[in-house]
Amino acid sequence: MSFWTELRLPAQCEALVAFYESHWLNQYAEKVGAAEVLSVLSGYFAVTGQIIKDAGGKLIKTMGDNGLAVFPADVADNGVLALRDVQKHGEAWLAQRGTKSRVTVKMDLGPVVLGLVGSPGDEIVDVFGKPVAQAYLLPSNGFSMSPTVFRSLTPETRTLFKKHTPSIRYISVEDHHARERAGDV
Length: 185
Fold this sequence. Notes:
The protein has seven helices and eight strands. Strands 1, 2, 3, 4, 5, 6, 7 and 8 form an eight-stranded mixed beta sheet that branches. It starts with a helix and ends in a 13-residue tail after the last strand. The protein is α+β, with helices and mostly antiparallel strands. The protein is globular, with a radius of gyration of 17 Å.
């Protein structure tokens, strides 16, 4: 049994919340038909959703070429590592289909509520709470997490990230950040 199979909704829990965004859909949609867009989105989210599921998380919903995923807080390390794979394999999968894109990831951790929302009979699982908003608003040029997420990680996983200020967040050691221009802070 897993967190997701034992879950009874509505449920309050501590969770890692992540948005991942690929920023390719608008340009791609101008070149191909709607059926091709749907085919690529379906394949992309099949690949990335499986990575998330294998790490103990759930792809809650998609919005265009963006995804919202949740992991129980006790598997935050697995979630963070899975999201690095989502970024790496998602970018490679899109590139193989002629769609170059930088997948960005933004994460926060804290108390959320999971529940069903929607028209009666057509409800879907959704997640609500401050970590959802915090993750969404977190600046990212690649891979970014809040200090709360970073502090929840094992020492081994922490070595994959470095502190970036201003605003404190942790980014992948592979990410290069342009210097802040005067007046942009």
